[in-house]
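Quick review question:
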């Protein structure tokens, strides 16, 4: 199983993750370890990040089809929550039961506050 820890408050944002990637059987059991050195924290800009747990391919497909990275940032900063909710509502149909992932993203917002959001199918 993947591990991501995100701590956010008014003064700082901390993101940590393990680095193991596995291939799963359909029932969720681990089939085999793919790598012990996967970077699960992705830098979007100098002030924003995203992480993926679950099936990496499913999450990447959602990110690409929803244009998540371009849609959620303005000048490298996280857009207001009301705009994030509108974006999610427009892309909710991309979340199917066959997919298995969680994407967390966050960073400094255009309101100069640390914010973190999570999307889970």
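Suggested answer, residue by residue:
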């Amino acid at each position: 199983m993947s591990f991501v820890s995100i701590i956010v408050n008014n003064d700082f944002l901390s993101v940590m993750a393990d680095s193991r990637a596995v291939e799963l059987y359909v029932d969720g059991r681990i089939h085999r370890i793919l790598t012990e050195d996967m970077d699960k924290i992705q830098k979007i800009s100098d002030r924003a990040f995203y992480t993926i747990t679950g099936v990496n391919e499913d999450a990447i497909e959602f990110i690409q089809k929803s244009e998540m990275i371009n849609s959620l940032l303005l000048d490298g900063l996280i857009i207001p929550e009301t705009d994030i909710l509108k974006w999610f509502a427009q892309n909710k149909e991309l979340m199917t039961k066959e997919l298995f992932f969680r994407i967390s993203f966050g960073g400094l917002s255009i309101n100069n506050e640390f914010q973190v959001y999570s999307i889970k199918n």
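Why it works: The mean pLDDT is 89. Helices lie at 56-66, 68-72, 81-91.
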